[in-house]
Design goal:
Blueprint: H1 2-35, H2 48-60, H3 62-79, H4 86-102, H5 107-129, H6 153-178, H7 185-201, H8 205-211, H9 234-240
Helix pairs in contact: 1-2, 1-3, 2-3, 2-4, 2-6, 3-4, 4-6, 6-7
Amino acid sequence: MQAVWQRGSSITRAAFKFFKVVLLVLLFFLLQTVVMPHLKIAGIMPNLLMVIIAIMTVSYGKLYAFISGALIGIILEAMSYSIPLFYLLIYPVLALLCAQVFADMSDIKREMRRIREAQRLSEAEAQIQAPFMRRKFRIRFRIRRDSPHDLNAHLRILLNALMLVFLFEGVMMLYIALSGIDVTFNHFVRILYTAAYTAACCVVMFPIRAWLGLYKRPRRLKVVEGETEVTTSREILKQIALVLDEAPEPKKNVFQFLRKKPKAQVDEPEADEPIPDETDSSTPEGEVPTS
């Protein structure tokens, strides 16, 4: 019965989470299409759809990043008919691609990084303990990050949104170039302005993450006045401890008969005890004891 209840509660939580994702996607789509055209700066409009994809990627993981990208692609594909299946493909693919970089690490990847970091620290400690050894001059170019801990969630959301904007604008620039339109320096400037405006709009991640319940603090137990702390003495703990009544017999060695038995030792009299006389004290004087 308890397993059925837990399964039902998990399904309810998953459905409620999916409902939140759908609601946020629809809200950001309305903001992008209705509100943002009136908030243009120098004719440039931010891409709020990339912001919500970045928030879902960091907050809920790769699966919900793909779901949010697919929902946005379906809505845009239904609203526009310029390029067939373009939005339906580009948004889920970009969301899933960036989720590989900015989503939370898996347990296997985290453990591998922890092992790699421990190995690196042990090698550094060995070099410190052996200063007489000749050190080799090596040039290392480290691009990847070996830390087993994730970056700050807000920083990852910002970087994810910027990466999504640059990839999307890069695909659009490639499409423009293939269409026969000359690509000028003004196009690249507009891409930079769009990315900067989108980064400024990432401020909305704080209220959204608060609404998703990601800022909950651990509850502290209230201490009621007059209550005393319940303690258990060591004697009671010894009494309730699980101790075997009879210890198991040690296992007999198969080759025990091959061992040499020690010779019997003669008990020597102790120094304090007096040495008994050879004659029997019960025999009267002058009489020879008969055998």
